[in-house]
Structure formats: structure tokens, C-alpha cells
Amino acid sequence: MKKTILLVDDEKDIREVLSISLADIGYEVYTAANGEEALRVFQKFKPAIVLVDIKIPGMDGIELLRKIKHINPDTEVIMITGHGEMDLAIKSLKHEATDFLTKPINDDTLQIALERAYARISMRKELMDSNKSWAMYDVLINELIQEDVMVIGLGHQILDINDTLLKKMGLKREEAVGRLCYEIIYNQDAPCFGENYYCPIKHIHETKQPAQVTHIRRDKDHKDRYYSVSFYPLFIEGEVVGAFELSKDITEDIKFQKIMMQQDKLASIGRLSAGVAHEINNPLTTILTSAMLIQEDIDPDNLIYQELETIANETLRCRKIVASLLDFARQTKPALKLYNINDIIIASIALTRKQAAFDDVTITHDLAEGITDVHVDKDQIQQAMINLIQNAVEATDSGGIVSVFTKPVDQTSLPWYYKKHFPPDEAVEITIKDTGTGITADIMDNIFDPFFTTKESGTGLGLAITHGIIERHAGYIGVQSEQGQGTTFTIRLPVDKGDQDGP
Ligand SMILES: Nc1ncnc2c1ncn2[C@@H]1O[C@H](COP(=O)(O)OP(=O)(O)OP(=O)(O)O)[C@@H](O)[C@H]1O
Ligand SMILES: [Mg+2]
Question: pLDDT tens-digit profile of 172-187?
Fold first, then answer.
């Protein structure tokens, strides 16, 4: 944009000479011979700089200065004074003139005064721009970005922190700014390090490039939560002085991915096992019947009879495993009928109570009254319940408790990815909670795998079968466990409202 200037002087010669000098140094020049004319030109062209002779006829220079400043306080007004008019010059400065020049005006001093005026204009513009970008920044980090945002200096000190994160930490801004990020977020007295807590600040300083890491943070219930943390370098005059840190809680996404992976894995193992189990079942039957047939011709006291007995028993054991495997792999649809889930649970508890009593474990239940009936295959759900209760009893020491709860749940507020998979808004939740040994984190990903067992005589098929059953009911099964504290399995079964009134 061309620089504009208004020159106000009643002497025509001065107007002409100065106009030429100003045009030479790149100005678009407007002129006026008196105050009134000057105001009209000023209003029309809005020049950024005005050069005013302090002594003009009619409205004097100082009056004109005041009026211009009133119209636009950002205008740079330079006064032109004669010798012996120092008091007027000073008065004009009090009225916020930028500068004054004494006649006769020499080109150098004129240029210096104009440069100074222009520097003030650009500084003001920069300030305004930066104010604008600070306002933008404020809106951005506090309103638009719903993630946790911190601005951190190279020495890990918090330069700024957004409302979302402050709210989460229960802190006021002034309590966080100036403190160290690792102190606030991790309660540590040294910067983060190691695989799960890599701090890329140094790397960003050196490379000036953004970085992304995953951090594991403990929430207030001491549960691990996964955060994807993005760092963007913060530049001031080309130098990296810190970083913007954006953290996003991805715990639920990771959980969901694991569920999906689990389902894929089980589906393929299921297909494979079904084939193998089917193939093995027939030869096993042949072995069993052959052993029994030979036994018929032999005296029970004969040693061979005993050996055949072992063959028959071991074959029976194999058949049991194969039967469980077929159970696990069974791809047939459940025969759905409307049942009150509480009735199935009471039956399952009745069937497991004896073993529990033997192990000195108490099974308690707290079942929600008036719970909506659900469409289920009673035998399959009962088998799933028995598997879970049995596991809970087996994990619990003498004197421990296994509790079973049911309650209706409203799934409307579930994240979209769960909803996509478990669409109904209404579900029945069954919880089986024990006070047992808990499940260590290193085996948590394997417990649903077929044949995964930590028990000497376990087949490792109980949970795999249970998982398959719940999946075939379009339900959800999840587990939470704390080593030494116990384990909670949660199942959700969809309530199909459409069929409730059916026969
Ligand atoms: N409530 C629980 N508490 C602690 N660990 C459990 C619990 N439920 C399951 N597990 C762990 O998961 C493993 C797999 O369980 P799953 O029911 O599939 O097989 P299993 O119980 O070992 O064998 P089976 O069910 O054939 O007797 C168990 O061996 C155990 O380590
Ligand atoms: Mg089991």
C-alpha cells in the first residue's frame, strides 16, 4: 500500500517544494492551505501522516492537530515551526504531535522525522496483529481445542495451560503457570524419561520439528490411561523457545481396538478348531469303542484290562476336551427366547454353589428388580455364567466372596464406536466380581484365548467359550482386574424393545 501524507501550509512555495521532496521519497501527497481545507482532505483520504505548519490562517495548527487526533488518534502529526516558536512546538507535543520540524526544512531531517513516524505506524500495526493472534490463540486453546493443551518452555516450565486441562487437574491458571510440567502432570521431581514417558522437548529444540509420543498416565483411581501427546515447536524470531503440547486420551480407542482384534483372532481360531475337533472326534470314538470291546474278552484282573482301562479313560478325557472345543467353535446361532436374566443367574449360582462352599467361598447376588426380559439362548447364557462364576471361585481364597449383580443400563451416551458395535440404547448389565488373586497385566490380553490357562488342570477354554456366546448374542464382555484386589467381569446384553410385546 502506498504511503500517504497530507501537507498543510499556507505558503504555496513551501507546499510545492515539500510536495516534490515527499513524492521523491515515495509518498502520495495531498495538500491544503488552511485548517478547514485540511480537515476536508483528511476526512476524504485518511492519510497516515499529516505535516502541519503551526501558524496557518484561521484555525491554527494546534487546533487542527487536536481535531485530527480527535478523528483518528493513530494519525502521526508532525508540526512545522518557525524560529522562536519553541513554546508552540512544546504545546503541540503535549497534544500528541509526533515530532516537530523547524523551518527552513532540510530534506534529511524531514526524512528522519517521517521514518520515525512510519516506524510508529508499523509498530502499532504489528501490535494490533499480534493482539489479534493472541486473541485467536486464546479462543483456539480454550474453546476450540477440547484436548489438554499446555505451552511449555525449554526448561519444562508451564508458560500457559488451557481451561480443559485446568479443570481436569482442579487447578487455577495462576497455580499452574510457572510450575514444571512433570510436577503438575506426573507428580514427579524430574523430567519424564523412558519408553512410556519419553519427553521430546530436547529433540524439538534441536530439530525444530514436531514430535508425537504416547504416555501412560495414572488417573485419580490409579488406573492407567493412554495419552497420545503431540508437540509442536513454539518459535519466537526463528528460535525454538518451547513447545505446544496437545494430549488426547486414547484409552477407549485402544480398548476398542483390542476388542476388535480379540474378535478377529477368536473367529479365525474358532474356524480352525471346529475343523480339527471334528476330525479328531471320530477316531477318538473308534479308539474308545475298540478298547471297550477288547476289555469284554479279558478278565478284569488281567494287567492288559487295566491298561485298556487307562486308554479308555484318557480317551474319554480327550473327548471332553474336544466337546469343549466344539462348544467354543460352535458357529450355530443361539436359539433366542425371552427370559428374565435374573432367573438364569439364580440357576447358575445354584449349580456352582456346592463347589464354592467346598472351597469356603460365598456367592452373593444383588439383582435389579423389574429388569426387562432379554432374548437369549438360556443354556448358552447359563454356561457362560457358570464359566465365569467357576473362574471367580477358583481365583478366590478361602473366606472370599463372589458377587453377581444385574442392572439395566442406558447406552445412549456410549462413544460412537461402541454404539456402532452395540447399537441398542438399552441393555442389561451383569457383573461378576470376586475378591480373588486378580489377573496380572501381562496375561490380560490372553485370557480369552482358547487353551490359555494358568491352572494345572484347566483346559483354557472357559473364557473363550463365554466370549463366543456373548458375541453371538450381540453383547459385550469386558474385564477389569487389579492384582491382589480381585477381578470384575462385565457383560452387556442388548434389550430388543421391538419384540417385547410379541407372543
Ligand atoms: N476371575 C478370575 N480371576 C483370576 N484369573 C482369572 C479369572 N478368570 C479367568 N482367569 C484367568 O484366565 C485364565 C483362562 O480362564 P479360562 O476360564 O478360559 O480357562 P481355565 O479356567 O484356566 O480353564 P477351564 O475353564 O477349562 O477350567 C485362567 O487360567 C486364569 O488365569
Ligand atoms: Mg475357567
Answer: 888 888 889 888 887 8
CB of 463 within 6 A of ligand 1: the answer is yes
Task: Check pocket membership of 124 for ligand 1, CB cut-off 6 A.
Answer: no
Which is the closest atom of ligand 1 to the Cα of 452? 14
Question: Residue 113: CB within 6 Å of ligand 1?
Answer: no
Instruction: Domain 146-249: give its CATH superfamily.
Output: PAS domain (3.30.450.20)
- DSSP 8-class letter at 462: H
Question: For the chain, which residues make up each domain, given as ranges?
Answer: 3-127, 146-249, 253-329, 337-499
Distance CA 31, CA 19 (A): 8
Distance, in Å, from the CA atom of 334 to the CA atom of 493, rounded to the nearest integer, reads: 13
Q: What is the CATH number of domain 3-127?
A: 3.40.50.2300
pTM of the complete model: 0.51
Q: Is 475 in the pocket of ligand 1 (CB under 6 A)?
A: no
What is the C-alpha separation between 78 and 68, in angstroms, rounded? 12
Residues lining ligand 2 (ion), CB within 5 A?
Answer: 391, 462
What residues contact residue 487 under an 8 Å CB cut-off, 6+ apart? 392, 395, 433, 434, 436, 438, 439, 479, 480, 481
Fold of the domain built from segment(s) 337-499: Heat Shock Protein 90 (3.30.565)
Pocket test for ligand 1, best of 390, 463, 489 (most atoms within 8 A of CB): 463
Which pLDDT score, from 0 to 100, does residue 503 have?
A: 34
Stronger pLDDT, 141 or 246, i.e. the higher one: 246
Return the pLDDT at 332.
56
CATH match for 253-329 among 1.10.20, 1.10.510, 1.10.3470, 1.10.287: 1.10.287
The pLDDT value given to residue 320:
76
From the CB of 439, is ligand 1 less than 6 Å away? Answer: yes
Nearest-CA residue for ligand 1 atom 12 is 447
Question: How does pLDDT run across 485-496, given as a tens digit for each residue?
Answer: 999 999 999 987
